[in-house]
Amino acid sequence: MTGAVSVTDTAPAPGAPTATRTPRGAAGLIDLSPRNRGRESVRKRVRFWSGWTLRVGVPVALIALWQLALTWGWTTEDVLPSPKTIVEAYQYLWNNGSLQAAVPVSLRRAGEGLLLGGSAGLVLGIFAGLWKIGEEIFDATLQMLRTVPFIALVPLFVTWFGIDEPSKLALITAAALFPLYLNTFHAVKGVDQKLIEAGRTFGLSGFRIARRIIFPTALPGILTGLRFACSFSLLSLVLAEQVNSTAGIGYLIINAQNNQRPDIVIAGIWIYAVLGILIDFVMRGVERLVLPWRARVGIN
User: Fold this and answer.
1) Of 48, 207, 279, 294, which residue is most buried, by most CB within 10 angstroms?
2) Residues 251, 259: contact at Cβ < 8 Å?
């Protein structure tokens, strides 16, 4: 049968009725013909470009609706500046150097808080997931603290660390700690015990089981926690930079608010949004690089 590989390749018994050709796509038949491979390649390209069209088209449609709302008089420039005005605000910030000075400061704050909080959450999650004593010591307390809203911590951190950088760093650290701890803890605890038993059957024990079985199996959950930690660090950055900031994107927004410049306020908000998209894009790339075997599940 040209271009097809049959699952069963046994000859029919003498006197048995002659088997008919299995239809294309039927169970037990995998079509490997060049024509089918070409069609599948075309379908993949169509899905790829249609996906990117939707990803780009929806934001463009929202911007068009934004402009139409101003054109049709649904709102005014004083309330919602036009996209053109926002672009001019970016040009103004770039020309006076404010944008180049603010973005690195905000990224440094978010990065330092993510590094401290993420490292602590990862270590605590692994410790609590691997050892019962770790779960008994840390899990109940951290589960309780993670329900406290960020805004409730601001007065406390200002009292403890002052109004300068340490309080901002403490807030971002706390925001990044909990999602990574929670996902790491559940990923480690959720490893199938049958895999561990199989490892022991092959002579693995202690750290070798953790390194060869538990950590690779828990890695998808840990990376999911890292994505949440990145998002939460950026969200807490928005709040942290509202407290007596002298530099950063939040400083630009507060100054614009005081000077009645809604265009710069919206421009600053869009910077936060773009940073969030870029961080998520980088984390998706890291997941594809570290987990190449992870299957994509979807309904086409």
Assistant:
1) 279
2) no
Of 131, 119, 83, 98, the closest CA to residue 270 belongs to 83
| Buried residues in 162-176 as b, exposed as e (16+ CB within 10 A) | eeebebbbbbbbbbb
Q: Could you give the CA distance from residue 93 to residue 81 in angstroms, rounded to a whole number?
A: 16
Q: Which residue has the tokens 């199996």?
A: 217
* Mean predicted confidence (pLDDT) in 84-102: 89
Distance CA 259, CA 253 (A): 10
- Read off the tokens for 117: 């909080």
CA 111/CA 107 separation, integer angstroms: 6
Residue 268 near residue 252 (C-beta atoms within 8 A): yes
**Does residue 63 register a pLDDT over 90?**
no
Residue 127 C-alpha from the chain's centroid? 24
Report the C-alpha gap between 118 and 135 in whole angstroms: 18
Q: Cβ(202)–Cβ(212) under 8 Å?
A: no
- Residues in a beta bridge with 6: 29
